[in-house]
Amino acid sequence: MYQSIILGSVLLVTLYVLKRMRDPKLNLPSLVRYKFPIIGHTFIFLTNSEEFLKQCRKEYGDIFSLYLWGEVKTFIGKEHLQEVLTKDDSFDAGRAFERLLPLNAMLKHLANFKNSTKVLKEYVINKLRTYTERMQKSLNLATRKYIGDCDEPKTIHNIYNIMTRIICIPIADIFVGQEISQYEEIINTFSEFTNDAVKILRIPPVLDFIYPGLQYYINSAILKLGIYNPAIKHEKVLIKHLKNQIYKRLQEKEKYGDSWKRPEDFLQDLIEEEGFDPNNNINYAEIAQKICLFIFVSIHTTASSCAHVIMDLASRPEHIQELYEEQLEVHKEADENGTLPFETLNNMRKLDSFIKESLRLTQNIATLPHVTLKDYTFANGLQIPKDRPVTLYIDDVYLDESLQGPNPKSFEPFRHLGTNAPVTKVSKNYLLFGGGKHACPGRQLAINEVKFFLHNIILKYNLRTESGKIEEPKMFGPMKLPSDAGIIFEKRK
């Protein structure tokens, strides 16, 4: 009986999917042929997505569909992906992300937080110059703590783990202030929250083979019911310290009046918001969850990017001397404490190009998922239905000679010099930060932190891989993860 029920369910889902794929009302993109029923393209996509997508592009053109995890998903190449990035009334990235990870179920108060991008820009991005000295000081202290002086050569494996610890310290300073960012459990929360949050994604969405979206509903229920919610322990840590810190600030402000020295950080900006009432049950959980959201979108991406760049530096030591000479010139502008002025970031042109080239070749093969808000017709006449998952085929842009220049597969560290296109600039041939008006608002913060960190690393150490070879990123499906190969750090003589 159970076998009949399962077989019947699979048959119904298959018929439903086939009906959607063959809707006579729409001029749908071609569905790539597949051999295996039910799993469709899932296995080959996970095991050999680079060659598989390249072949699909060659045979089916710029827009094609795959059957993955029980659902038809459409992939968009270079000729039409800007439509996805700029047509806000037709494509939604937020809804696609929520389908992947039910963050609203994990952080329940986020439903009340509608203007996160505006808040980030106003409270953090517009004040980057203010945070310059503190960021450098925090990075230098963290580097000494987690990498050390390296008087004797020191080998570090899995540089990503070290980078999460280093990168999170200045971020914690900016978001919760200099005082409580010194606590080890606060550092643990900032460095570990994202990895804990995405653990639920390690469960393969096999339930979607039964019915598309079933895995999402199960995951949401698990989080809402508290059966498993990794945010809870981090929220408790934040609330404990936020209560003490907010109380202390309110007391000191009342005591010292106009002579009170206002803390310069994200937390203080939240305290001074119009709706904040210190006399009426402060919602510490909501404040903590706002901070968790920004931890999620900032720490992992910055640490991962920095880990990729360091691995590329160690893999190509022949370029370090040229970068070292540039950073020596830049460092002449530092004050007596070794702190660089904010403006010197613009003088790190060779480093900027190296970072951009590294991130160009380590971005995921296909990423930036969206969902259609309505039936949509592309410029070439192909159509996709409402609620169709859409993924951008990034390699179609990054491996195109007309967009990237000669030898697009080759790592050319100074490819971007003289192009007037720094690593933070969003363009049609560089999609790391998305595009359109929804391009990543925190990209300047992330790249500033990476540059200040690498400035110190290049001046202080010689780097090389333990193997003596070029270490490539680890592949998981279309994702490129930082290599965990050993990097040898040795103090410059």
User: How is the CATH topology named?
Assistant: Cytochrome p450
What is the strand tally? 13
Instruction: Please work out how many helical segments DSSP would assign.
Output: 18
Q: What is the level 1 CATH name?
A: Mainly Alpha
Placed side by side, the strands forming the largest sheet appear as 1-2-3-9-6-4
Termini separation (Å)? 75 Å
Q: Based on the structure given, which CATH architecture is correct?
A: Orthogonal Bundle
Q: What's the shape?
A: globular
Beta-strand fraction estimate: 5-15%
**Low-pLDDT segments, ≥5 res:** none
Helix content percent band? 40-55%
Broad structural category:
alpha+beta
Our count of domains comes out at 1
Helices, strands, pairings?
Layout: H1 2-21, E1 30-31, H2 42-60, E2 63-68, E3 71-76, H3 81-86, E4 91-92, H4 93-100, H5 103-106, H6 116-123, H7 128-146, E5 154-156, H8 159-176, H9 184-197, H10 214-224, H11 231-256, H12 266-271, H13 284-315, H14 320-331, H15 349-362, E6 366-372, E7 376-377, E8 383-384, E9 389-393, H16 395-398, H17 401-404, H18 443-460, E10 461-465, E11 474-476, E12 479-481, E13 487-491
Parallel strand pairs: 1-2, 3-9
Antiparallel strand pairs: 2-3, 4-6, 5-13, 6-9, 7-8, 10-13, 11-12
